[in-house]
Structures are given as structure tokens and as C-alpha cells.
Amino acid sequence: MAKLHHISAFNTILYILTLTNLCQSQSCPCGYSVGNSVFTEAMETDFTQVQSLNSIIGDWQVQDWRSNASADANIPYNRVTQYANVIAGNSQGLQMMVRTASDDSIGCSEIRTARNDIKFGSFRINMKTTPINGTCAAFFWYQDDAHEIDVEILSRELTTGLDGTPGPVANLVIHSPESQAAGFDASKTNSFMKDTMDWNPTKDFHEYRVDWLADGVQFYTDNSKVKQMTNNVPENPGRVFINHWSNGSPGWSGGPPKEDATMWVRYTRLYFNSSDPKLVQSAEKRCSAARSKGSKNLVCDIGGGSNNGGGNNGGGNTSGGNSNNGGGTGSNGGNSSSVFVPSSPVLPTNSSGSSSSWADLPDGSDSDKKGAASPQLGGNVGALLALSFLCIVSVHFI
Ligand SMILES: *[C@@H]1O[C@H](CO)[C@@H](O)[C@H](O)[C@H]1NC(C)=O
Ligand SMILES: *[C@@H]1O[C@H](CO)[C@@H](O)[C@H](O)[C@H]1NC(C)=O
Ligand SMILES: *[C@@H]1O[C@H](CO)[C@@H](O)[C@H](O)[C@H]1NC(C)=O
Ligand SMILES: *[C@@H]1O[C@H](CO)[C@@H](O)[C@H](O)[C@H]1NC(C)=O
Ligand SMILES: *[C@@H]1O[C@H](CO)[C@@H](O)[C@H](O)[C@H]1NC(C)=O
Ligand SMILES: *[C@@H]1O[C@H](CO)[C@@H](O)[C@H](O)[C@H]1NC(C)=O
């Protein structure tokens, strides 16, 4: 009897220790730091592990909308964004398609974050773009057409650098009231830059990153800072999008592509602040509770990157979501961190039907250009509550 009691006490302690470890390893209670900036929220998705789109609904919404051809705007094809063109279940990552033209339409793909409360952040995507001429591969933050930060790779521009220099370009853009006044032609503003890449973006996966702060937007490729913009910096919340599209416009996407074209997304790592006062408050509580408990690793360093142009993927193994360093700390950065960054996703996805707190936020001012809200909004709150409950219970016991 005594022995049995002993064993079960031992098991209980083991159980509690495991839970405690789980809770600590799942959280960076005071947020995520990049240089001097700290963000309280994180959403990491390892698309190589996503077997079905259902499992990312809640974090992401798969879009379904159309934008018609317009002779006036020199847009020859309808751009038709369809669920069927976003394909999960491949170990390379998420497959985002642009189809060959069918009649006067081109099938395109788009996903966006369910959350529309994203205000300042470090947004990272690891992707491989298509070599098929005539598409735009885009990773962007978006409030509305006049407040948008983009990284866009146009396959029609990949005419150089495929086997030497000068390299192919990534278009780096802030859309602003100024670009709106110029007919959404950001090249007529000072918030449009072309970064020449040292690689062929269609051959291998690379990380493209936007750090958006109140005083400027910095662009990184593979952890090296390549450009910065301090004008037209947005200051209101929005969402993060990924899309792959063509409408045949000679001025931008080109195309239509002659074959079905694939953009591969290996992971996204989004670290950001929320504009929702309730979430700001709960982040503060989470942090001060951990602080008063004397927890270590309150803030996780997600890597500041370098700006000497020498950084490649470095020490931060960026292959997939299991890297503890988040891939953010290039070997030449000198500040590689041993702080644990949770593997994907930070928030449990696709738990039972309860709605997440941000799902109730107003939908903001999305224009039809970026489509309507997807009908599905999974809930994270159930699983999050369960996890917090376990954490609270284990902490209480200890
Ligand atoms: C994000 O929010 C935290 C907590 O409110 C704040 O301390 C921090 O400065 C914010 N970060 C940025 C980049 O604004
Ligand atoms: C996600 O939720 C949907 C609908 O609630 C369900 O049909 C699906 O099986 C779930 N997927 C996973 C991976 O749990
Ligand atoms: C776009 O074209 C479709 C099909 O012809 C039509 O039903 C729809 O009303 C058009 N939308 C707009 C905004 O013109
Ligand atoms: C793509 O096609 C356009 C139009 O034919 C052409 O001008 C451009 O050079 C092509 N780009 C590449 C990378 O072949
Ligand atoms: C990254 O880590 C994985 C798993 O540990 C390993 O298989 C892979 O070779 C590593 N990649 C690089 C580039 O180091
Ligand atoms: C590393 O961090 C320290 C302190 O934050 C800073 O002074 C130093 O410049 C950083 N080194 C590099 C290579 O970024």
C-alpha cells in the first residue's frame, strides 16, 4: 500500500513536471524580441506538416473571390481566387497555384490571417517561387489598398541573375495615400524599391521578412537587412496575406502563365502586437505573472538579423517548424540566442467550435481587391484555455 502510494505520488510529480515543462516550452510569456523591439503575439505555421487545410483554419483563411478584367486598366483577364488552388499535404510545404488561362479567367490562390488586429510586427515567410513566366508571388501585410506593405516577386522579371549577376529582384512596396493618389502606382512614390537577390528564388527556399515598426519598415532576405523605408509607414492594424496571382496585366503580373505555376511556402513566422486592448491586457498579465514567479526566459529572442549583407541562413536552421532558434539568428550575426522559441504553432489550431477572441473583431476596411472574409473561423480559445488551465494547475501544485 505504502509502495503503491509512493509510485502514484512519483507519477503525479512526473506528470506535473511534464506539464510544467510543456507550459514553459509553449510560451515566451513576455513576448518575442527583435533588436530593441518586443512583440507579444506569435503565430508560427510549419506548412510541411500541414496535411489538410482544415488544420490551419483558425489561424488562416483560404480565400475565394474574383476581380474582373478591365480594358480601361489594361487588365485582360479575370482574376479568380479559388480554394482549390491552395493545396496542403505536400512535404515541401503549401502549394499555391496560378492556373493557365481558361477562357478569360485565371485561377489564383490566396490565404490570409484570421486575425485582423496585427499592428507592428516581424513577418517571415520561407518560400520558393515559380519559374513560369507571368505570375506575382506576394507576401504582405494589408489594412486597405492605401495601407499595405508588400514583398512581391514577379516571374516575368527573372530574366537575369539565374546563373550570375545582377540577380533577380524582389519588389518592396508600401502602399499609402500617396500611392493611392498616383493610381496605386507605388513606383511614383518613394516607397517602392527593388532588391537584387543573390540567388534564384525559384531554385531554393529562402526567407523573406518584413519588420514593421512605428518609425520604419525594414526588409530582410535570409536574415540580412536589404532595404528600409521610413516614409508612409502604416499605423493601424491589419492582416498578413500570401497570394500567387495573375491577371495578364503587362504592367505587373504579366502572363497568363503557359503552364500551371506553383509557389511553395515552407513556413510563416509572424511575431506582432495586437491592437485589441483585451489582448494587450492579457499579455501584460501573462508577463507579470511569469515575472513574479521568477521564471527564466521571459522574452524569446527571435533574432535581429544582420545588415552586413553576409548573412545566409546561418546557424538558425530554417527548415521547418522544429527549429528552436526560429532561424532568426544567422551565424554571422554574433548574437545567436539559446532562448527557446516555440515550434509551430504557438496557438493550438482547429480546436472545437468556440470562437477565438479576435474573430469577433470588426472586419475592418477590406476592399473587394483582397476579398471577403472566408466563412470558416476556427476557434483557438478552447484548446488555449485547456492548456492555460493545465499550466495554472501545475503551477498551483508546485
Ligand atoms: C508591443 O507591445 C508591448 C506591450 O504593450 C510594448 O511594450 C511594445 O513596445 C510594443 N512593441 C512595439 C514594437 O510597438
Ligand atoms: C478541423 O475542424 C474541421 C471542422 O470543424 C473538422 O472537420 C476537421 O476534421 C478538423 N481537422 C483537424 C485536423 O482537426
Ligand atoms: C464580374 O463578372 C461576373 C461574371 O461575368 C459578374 O457576374 C459580376 O457581376 C462582375 N463583377 C463586377 C464587379 O463587375
Ligand atoms: C516573360 O514574358 C514577357 C512577355 O513575353 C517577356 O517580356 C519577359 O522577358 C519574359 N520573362 C522571362 C523571365 O522570360
Ligand atoms: C536542419 O535540421 C534538420 C533536422 O534536425 C536536419 O535534417 C537538416 O539537415 C538541417 N538543415 C540544415 C540546413 O542544417
Ligand atoms: C549583439 O548584441 C549586443 C547587445 O545587444 C550589441 O551591442 C551588439 O552590437 C550585437 N552584435 C551584433 C553582431 O549584432
TrEMBL record:
Signal peptide as annotated in the record: 1-25
Entry keyword RNA-binding: no
Compositional bias per record (Polar residues), positions renumbered to this chain: 346-358
GO MF term list: carbohydrate binding; hydrolase activity, hydrolyzing O-glycosyl compounds
NAD in keyword set: no
Entry-linked InterPro entries: Beta-glucanase-like (IPR000757), ConA-like_dom_sf (IPR013320)
GO terms (BP aspect): carbohydrate metabolic process
Ranges of biased composition (kind: Gly residues): 307-333
Source organism, top-level taxon: Eukaryota
Domain GH16: 63-276
Matches recorded under Pfam families: Glyco_hydro_16
Keywords, ordered alphabetically: Lectin, Signal
Segments of this protein annotated with the region Disordered: 307-374
PANTHER family: GH16 DOMAIN-CONTAINING PROTEIN
Protein name per UniProt: Concanavalin A-like lectin/glucanase
Source organism: Microthyrium microscopicum
Lineage summary: Eukaryota, Fungi, Dikarya, Ascomycota, Pezizomycotina
